[in-house]
Amino acid sequence: MKEVVIAGVGQTPVGEHYDISLRELAYKAVEAARADAGGLHPQALYVGNMLAATLSRQGHLGTLIADFCGMTGIEASAIEGAGASGGLALRMGYLAVASGAVDTAIVVGVEKLTDQTVSNVNAAIATTTDADYEAEQGLTLTALAALLMRRYMHEFDVPQGAFGGFPITAHANGATNPNAMYQRAINPDAYLKAGMVSDPLNMFDIAPNADGAAVILLTRPEILPSKFSHPLVQITGSSVATDTLALHDRPQPLSLHAARVSIESACQQAGVSVGDIDLFELYDAYSIYPPLILEAAGLAEAGQGWQWAQNGQISLQGELPVATFGGLKARGNPGGATGVYQIVEAALQLRSQAGKNQVLDAKTALVQSLGGAASTAVTHVLQTNN
Amino acid sequence: MDIPRHWRLRKQRYALVGEVCDNCDAKLFPPRDICPDCGEEAKTLYSFSGHGEVYSYTTVYDPPVGFEESAPYTVAIVKLDEGPLVTAQLTDLEEKEVEIGMPVEMVTRKLRSATDERGMLVYGYKFRPILNASLV
Amino acid sequence: MSDPNSKLLTPQNPVGIVGYGAYVPRYRLPASEVSRVWTDSMGATPIKEKSVPGLDEDVATMSIEAARNALLRAEIAPTEIRAVWVGSESHPYAVKPTSTIVAEAIGAVPNTQAADWEFACKAGTEAMVAAMGLVGSGMAGYAMAIGMDTAQGRPGDALEYTAAAGGAAFIIGPEDDSLAVIESTYSFVTDTPDFWRRAYQKYPEHGHRFTGEPAYFKHIASAGLAFLEMTETTPEDYAYIVLHQPNAKFPQRAAAKLGFEPEQVKTGLLVSEIGNTYSGAAIIGLTAILDEAQPEDKILLISFGSGAGSDAMALRVTESIEKRRHLAPKVRDYISRRTEVDYATYVRMRGKLVMK
Predict the structure, then answer these.
(1) Would residue A372 be called left, alpha or beta, if left means φ above 0 and alpha means ψ between -120 and 50 degrees?
(2) How many A×B Cβ pairs under 8 Å?
(3) Is residue B73 included in any domain, yes or no?
């Protein structure tokens, strides 16, 4: 495999972009990433998207975005894996460049979750669960997370407020991210008083569905001029793993098998251990996932992951900063674009371009996107030699 | 109207008909044809007793389209006596505080209208607190 | 014993009830709630309270549960059933059988008759008589007859106090397998428009006091008196009588006119507690009796369906009742499972809330 570096990144603010269409949203991020990469021209385009066919009545996204962004003629395709779609698109771009099949690939994560009313959006997102055996019972992705959280609290005797540290940290970081949907910190008291949505999940335990686009340009270092405009971040580990689609089909629902396997594999490829990680962009669409992911990563025993959020260990200055630009919770969760946002954010950290959100001396980042109830897990390790 | 999609599942939906692995005797619901325990083919039909206990539960106040009429509703993972976990709504719950471990039994209820009042009715399994514990 | 010229219908081969099952939903609307909303709580109410189906219940789901209870008591394989007949005036579909849903759910498909019956409140007993014929002729080993309703009553109408949800399922089979033998049956039918629901209408219309003497009382009495005469029995021969019960008064008065004592009426009289379950009303009363009756007890059942007609039949309880009645929930298990709802919740549950 050849060395793969990030030549450019771009993103739009995450939010309710009622006046911007799916293609325009993608174009804004593509334009930014290509400028960041010094006008580098890709030979292949990979789009990560979850629900455009349902919510925007638009399929065939690879060609649409190549066409609209003035790249007609190049290889293009779209990849779907629920909330992990963006991560999967990056994986495709990585494989294309690492294999030598193309010199430069562009990875676009784009999602519009505000084109329809809430009950339609809920139903569309529920199609990422098992349609015949979960969604048909009225289960939503939110309810799925609530089922996990309730069971976790029951098995490990964890109090209701234990999860608050994750959204509180995310909001603190989102407050200084100009692209975040929520740029406002919340305090522990507000968390405890928040209205219940699907018990035990309250409104601060749930990331907002939103619109957004993020783009990565991947290439090999030798393609770039020797004096490039910004430090290069290398992808040193890339792994995808799957679990059962339905949560109820797992022997141990609280053990995120795919998340664990993909972290182990990505770290092994990079030659790092999770203890070497300087920051972790993880899936915090619901507050139950960060503790489960930290446990899957081997950073905590089963039932102990929530304690990471108790003493500032996951803050920007902590032992293992997570959600450094606000995570899904405060930056917002634009579905299939989220995985690419996470990579953009980790790249900015490793380039020391994270501004007020900078993690000091960040050299190695772990980035993981999950689809459904961690049914698909995509993990990348990013490193820099600066 | 997605008629065939519902129709082909009617036996499983109405009466919890799953599968049993001829090789290791694992009981499978939902049916999945390959035994997750031993990896052998498992296509022999098996009727579950419908008895189990609540493994986890939550309430949906913000329903997806198609479920608005019944919101708020309680959805649970139920651990069936024969082993498998199954996702299903709990029904007939009033005045009964649900808790993990609560024994439940399967009933066949209306899941929803497939589209609107003109559409086909979708029936399927739900679970309720045991009606008469002496019969279990 | 079978005589094609006799008005009394007696099967060629003796038949009986092999299994029975009741169903009543858990919600109750007190009659006082209806009068609170519609009459300033003035005047008497015809019953105490009525059962109300849950949001996820209809005649198909309720029939499935009653049918499963009947199967538990019958201790036969569902594949031995050759007919699944559901009588109701609230079938979920205008066109598409309820009975195939029930047959599929209980595992009786595909080698079975299946059809829906409608004769106002006597569709259930009509299906029972047909099942007697199918089994009694030797054409089938077992046949299932169900009477079940989620009864309709226009908001504010007298029927709204009583129109309730519930019913029962019976598996008719050979005499030697029966927990109650059905000896014979007689039907009395005329064209009497006391109550109806026109096509596409949500709620039924009725003739107010016309539903009493010329309809309910006339048909029940005619069927009952003729049946007693033809069978050469008297009220004293019966431990129990159960009649169609649109309210608490009518069946008590009709039973008294036939010469029965209140003691014989009370076990099968459920209307005050669950309301008028239309196609299910007389036969769910029968399940309450079967839940308690002793071997050799005789039961007289007379249904009434508007339009109008009555089916009378006599049952003789056998030894096997004592073992079988405990194999499934009794109707009292359902009645005691009770959640009271107010009128607003009832309006939502019954789809009476105008949404567009």
Answers:
(1) left
(2) 106
(3) yes
Q: Per residue of chain C (356 residues), give pLDDT as tens.
A: 678 889 999 999 999 999 999 999 999 999 999 999 999 999 889 999 999 999 999 999 999 999 999 999 999 999 999 999 999 999 999 999 999 999 999 999 999 999 999 999 999 999 999 999 999 999 999 999 999 999 999 999 999 999 999 999 999 999 999 999 999 999 999 999 999 999 999 999 999 999 999 999 999 999 999 999 999 999 999 999 999 999 999 999 999 999 999 999 999 999 999 999 999 999 999 999 999 999 999 999 999 999 999 999 999 999 999 999 999 999 999 999 999 999 999 999 998 888 77
Q: How far is A256 from chain B (nearest CA, A)?
A: 16
In chain B, the residue whose alpha carbon lies closest to the alpha carbon of A151 is B56
Topology match between the domains A4-117+210-223 and A125-208+236-383: yes
The active-site residue out of C65, C121, C126, C175 is C121
Q: How many domains does chain B have?
A: 1
**B134 part of a folded domain:** no
SS3 for chain A is CCCEEEEEEEECCCECCCCCCHHHHHHHHHHHHHHHCCCCCCCEEEEECCCHHHHCCCCCHHHHHHHHCCCCCCEEEEECECECHHHHHHHHHHHHHHCCCCCEEEEEEEECCCCCCHHHHHHHHHCCCCCCCCHHHCCCHHHHHHHHHHHHHHHHCCCHHHHCHHHHHHHHHHCCCCCCCCCCCCCHHHHHHCCEEECCEEHHHECCECEEEEEEEEECHHHCCCCCCCCCEEEEEEEEEECCCCHHHCCCCCCCHHHHHHHHHHHHHHCCCHHHCCEEECCCCECCHHHHHHHHCCCCCCCCHHHHHCCCCCCCCCCCCECCCCHHHHHCECHHHHHHHHHHHHHHHHCCCCHHHCCCCCCEEEEEEEECCCCEEEEEEEECCC
Q: Name the residue range of residue B76's domain.
A: 3-129
Domain spanning A125-208+236-383: CATH 3.40.47.10: yes
Q: How many CA atoms lie within 13 A of C285 on its CB side?
A: 34
Q: Name the token pair of C329.
A: 């929930």
Fill in the amino acid letter for A266: A
Domains in chain C with CATH codes: 15-179+329-349 (3.40.47.10), 180-323 (3.40.47.10)
In a domain, B61, yes or no: yes
How far does C40 lie from chain B, in Å, by closest CA?
28
Residues 107-136 of chain C with CB under 8 A from chain B are 107
Model-level pTM?
0.95
Q: Is residue B136 part of a domain?
A: no
Domain ranges of chain A: 4-117+210-223, 125-208+236-383
Q: Tell me which architecture the domain covering A4-117+210-223 has in CATH.
A: 3-Layer(aba) Sandwich (3.40)
Which residue in the set A150, A198, A250 is minimally distant from B60, CB to CB?
A: A198
For the beta carbon of residue A289, count every other beta carbon within 10 angstroms.
Answer: 28
Does residue C216 contact residue C43 with C-beta atoms inside 8 Å? no
Instruction: Pick the closest to residue C193 from C213, C203, C207, C209 (CA basis).
Output: C207
**End-to-end Cα distance, chain B:** 38
Name residue C177's amino acid.
D
What are the φ/ψ torsions at residue A88 (nearest 5 degrees)?
-65, -35
